[in-house]
Specification:
There is one protein chain. With 218 residues, this protein is an alpha+beta fold. It contains one helix and seven strands, in the order βββββββα. Among the domains are: 57 residues, SH3 type barrels (Roll), CATH 2.30.30.40; 90 residues. The protein has a three-stranded antiparallel sheet with strand order 5-6-7, with no helix packed on it. A two-stranded antiparallel ribbon has the order 1-2. A two-stranded antiparallel ribbon has the order 3-4.
């Protein structure tokens, strides 16, 4: 893009002032290689065109614009690259995009940093909880071991109690048997005493009678 600098010189009481032509220019695309040819289109500054033919003698270049329209423009108004305004706009846009991306990356980095700190805290909490669970597990194992030992001891005591109960039952049965035998023995003794008494009652009178008879014979 070509910037035309206009110097306005005023005479009399007017003060000299410098101004600039706007870079938003438009050039004419004509049907031929001179100003005598009609204007087919106005091309704004920064419009991309396809060069078809260059006429160095007349200073015109044949171009094709988007849509396929063809015409002639002054070669001095064409540049190899985009206009400065376009490049500046593109640069500003790119810079804005980079700044936005930078802010997004900074935000994402801060988020990742916070997430990392949160994960570290969570990891520490999990490690503490793991230690606590390990201690509880060890306590449960000790308790289970003690419970197992108590269960075994309880089973042993139950076995001993059952054996003692059986022995007690045997002793009770034996005692009942002894009682029955003692009762029978006492019954036999009583019967023997009664029988002996009867025999004595029968024998003693006879002995006395014989003695008396014997005494009478003398």
């Amino acid at each position: 893009m070509t910037l035309l600098i206009l110097s306005v010189c005023l005479t009399g009481n007017a003060q000299a002032e410098t101004q600039y032509v706007s870079d938003r220019l438009e050039i004419t695309m004509r049907s031929g290689k001179s100003t005598s040819h009609g204007i087919t289109r106005m091309l704004r500054s920064g419009t991309p065109v396809e060069v078809l033919e260059v006429d160095a003698k007349t200073g015109y270049t044949k171009v094709r614009v988007a849509g396929g329209k063809e015409g002639w423009v002054l070669s001095r108004f064409l540049m190899k690259g985009p206009a400065a305004r376009e490049r500046l706009a593109a640069s500003e846009k790119k810079q804005a995009e980079l700044e936005l991306e930078n802010r997004q990356m900074a935000t994402a980095f801060n988020g990742l940093k916070e997430e990392k700190e949160s994960l570290i805290q969570k990891g520490e909490s999990l490690e503490l909880e793991s230690r606590k669970v390990g201690q509880e597990l060890a306590e449960i194992r000790r308790t289970a071991s003690s419970a197992l030992a108590l269960d075994n001891e309880n089973k042993e005591l139950k076995g001993r109690a059952i054996a003692l109960e059986r022995k007690l039952q045997a002793l009770q049965q034996e005692n009942e048997g002894l009682k029955d035998r003692t009762a029978r023995d006492w019954f036999m003794v009583g019967a023997a005493v009664v029988l002996l008494g009867i025999l004595v009652g029968l024998i003693i009178p006879r002995i006395r009678w014989r003695k008396k008879t014997t005494w009478d014979t003398f």
